Amino acid sequence: MSVRALRDRFRLLQRHRLFSLVPLAAIVLLLPLLFPSAYYYRIAALVFIFAIAALGLNLLMGFAGQVSLGHAGFMGVGAYAVAIGPTHLGIPPFFSFVLGAMLSALVAFVVGRPILRLKGHYLAVATLGLGVLLAIVFSNEANWTGGPDGMTVPRLTLLNWSLRGADTWYWILAVSFLVSAVLALNLIDSPTGRALRAIHDSEIAARVLGVDVAQKKLMIFVVSAVYASVAGSYLALLNGYITPEVSGFLRSIELVAMVVLGGMGSVVGSLVGSAVLVILPQALTLFRDYEHMVLGLIVMSVMIFLRGGIVPRLAAALGGRRK
Amino acid sequence: MMMVNVKCAAALGVGLATALAAGPASAQVKVGAVLSASGPASFLGDPEKKTLDIYVDAINAKGGINGQKLQVVIYDDGGDANAARTFATRLVEEDKVVAMVGGTTTGTTMAMIPVFEDAQIPFISLAGAIEIIQPVRKWVFKTPHTDKMACEKIFDDLKRRNLTTVALISGTDAFGHSMRDQCILVAPGAGITIADVENYGPGDSDMTPQLTKIKAAAGVQAVINTGFGQGPAIVTRNYRQLDIPYPFYQSHGVASKQFIDLAGPAANGVRLPAAALLVADKLPDSDKQKPVVVSYKKTFEAKTGQPVSTFGGHAYDGLMILTEAAARAGSFDKAKVRDEIERTKGYIGTAGIVNMSPTDHLGLDLSAFRMLEIKDGDWTLVRD
Amino acid sequence: MAEFLQFVFSGLTVGAIYALVAIGFTLIYNASDVVNFAQGEFVMLGGMTTVFLGQAGVPLPLAALVAVLVTTAAGLALYRFAIVTARDANAVTLIIITIGASIFLRGVAEIVFDKRFHSLPSLFGSDPIRVGGAAILPQSLIVLAGALIIMVLLWAFIDRTLFGKAVIATSTNRIAARLVGIDTRIIVGACFALSAAIGAIAGILVTPITLTSYNAGTLLALKGFAAVMLGGIGSAIGAVVGGVLLGLFEAFAAGYVSASYKDAVAFLVILAVLFAMPQGLFGKAKVERV
Hints:
Helix content of chain A: over 70%
Oligomer: heterotrimer
Shape of chain B: globular
Strand order of the largest sheet of chain A: 1-4
Order of helices and strands of chain A: HHHHHHHEEEHHHHEHHHH
Strand order of the largest sheet of chain B: 2-1-3-4-5
């Protein structure tokens, strides 16, 4: 085949929606070669976990234009599901994982309908209240959740194989993140995704065009809750221990910061935002007492100078004209 | 977009690797400490951190242990169990510590235990809950009294005053909640009836609704407040505001002069179980703990300008138990040090006299707690 | 009856605190559509600075004045270096910037101050006033009075002065305001400074009741934000009413339902109100232009 034909083939492939994930997948495959110890695997694992949650939130905030200041609550639902299921109900961790996601979806569905009628800051405070409520439940119901001290999470075992080791977790989480990204990209490019972006631009115009706004918003809220639940379950299983802080207000704010820092509306941005907020506190320990000051400065500076988020800004600077 | 992704991801990878570059290699022996120096438990973690810094320097000034200088690697987990777990892994994998003194709260301690057990590194916890050492874990020890002991000490004092029915008012934080549960568990066996249980949030500013309910509850003869931080000071003020006539007990969570300053005159008459450290100067000269606690109090207050607190004292005890064990073992071999920690006998610390054993990884008994009463704005000993 | 009255007093005490914090949100939002999550830190700065200056020997009234000035400077700095530089960033970006600012201010407080709890003396002593078998601290009434006075002053300022008219113009349509010659940067900057000052005053007044520490700002901002939304964002009356109501909800929940769940109950009530009145109690109905 001639060079020209090959190049045309390549250009066609480039336009495929999932193509942007290929280099990402390659980096993910090669990254472990740089890891000197289990500590790096653990950091990477945490990055993927929070990236999955941030991705779900990004679908809600970046694409559908809604806001949620309580998303860590759904992470808590998933996390406690894999803790309570095996410990108190005798349900194996794998099924508890799935049940947690379903429970999250249910909560999101039930609460979403009324909440999503609110807009802007009112929606923000409503989701905030939801997150606070979930955190309070996890902290108070000590018979189930171990109370504010938290509880142990049994290891995930499939047949006779027990999931342990930060490196194993790395691969599982990397694959999970890539799968979530693929699903997200497919969703974005589907009619539903286009409807969501229309809603983001103007809810009234979308309604005029025949989009069932309430139903679409609810759907994306539920999807984002499931993403958060999955991430929470993974976190609990990785740590083998869970405390109510997992659904705390500060965690919810962190998730929003990840989405905005990385770039709202960018799938890769979710990963970048997560990486920044997971790695930065580790890197800042060299500042000892000054680490929070520096963290605050960095967050502010990134938002001020890399307006729109890291990835879109870099894309504009490096990628040139293409979207 | 593709090029951006490649660049982004590459930057991520390189950034990850370099940002976490390990510190310079050193011939020093490293001891790890993951403390909650910021966040909701910073009230406990900050004096712990200061104590470790002060006393590691002091030990090194005297030549170190086994001829080697110590370096303490302190990370701040902000009270978050997930962060604590990450730092624990970092201590084991990157900093290659030989022992760990830390874990300000029960939650962070429990999350870190598996890491140190897997790496077979002795871990001396600074947290309160009894579940840290019960069931006994081979590599895990702790220095603070358990909340169960605090309940027992209070109930003991109540019985001496012929009071048998109490009401509990607890913070919903981990400390308050855990001690409340222990008191409820221990009460029947001690002959104490619990008439009412109320809760408040650790950040609340007014607890008069809860106290009103307690005041109205029938048969209450005394009230116990379990919690730490600013809550107990506010509860104490509210208690006097509402003119509640029953004797009032606090927990060892308020063990710092600051509590008296914050609660003001309302604190007079309040009793609490606490380590001898708080009444260091008032101990009789024959008291075996006196030299240790007076010395620690002087040093801490001189170096930091802040009043001494028993939480810093727990860190002191942890560090001393560790270093004395290492000195006895003659090396920093982790298994040998662990064995020597377990053989600690007659160690006189700020919390009490420690006698560990293979079945007791705390080593304190009820006599380590003193019953104190606040009089005229200062601590006084009720009885030994 | 005495019990009910005590719950009311407790609710007023806590509610007045929330009201005073909530007012600080209102002014900045009105001028610039920014919800300033660093408002809690302004409250903390007011209290902590006064405490530390007092400990250093400065007489308290002077310490309080200096604290207000320091916090006002912080508010101006936030505006000049963060908000202005961010220029036309969207709402979510600005919120994250203020969150970054709150982390930064907390970090500074960690180092400059310490990690213990502190108090200030009450203005009229700590003997409670007893009414009908219940007790309320004089300081609680002072906080409530403070909230009402500031609310009235704010209203007078916005409604009756030329500067206030300029603020209204800026918040209605910034470009139009600029076109008629209003320097919107000065207007918005002044609003930030004023909000910071209000926050500092709030901190000084509430510290005798709530005590303060370097991270006291977070919870206050959370509750203040909830109170503001309940009352309807953009309305000073709404902020005060929202704050007092939130305090009352919490107190009654603690007294009659369950103290462990009082925060949750309070939030549920807020949600119920918002479902019935999506703009909050006093919020202006938003007209969305198509």
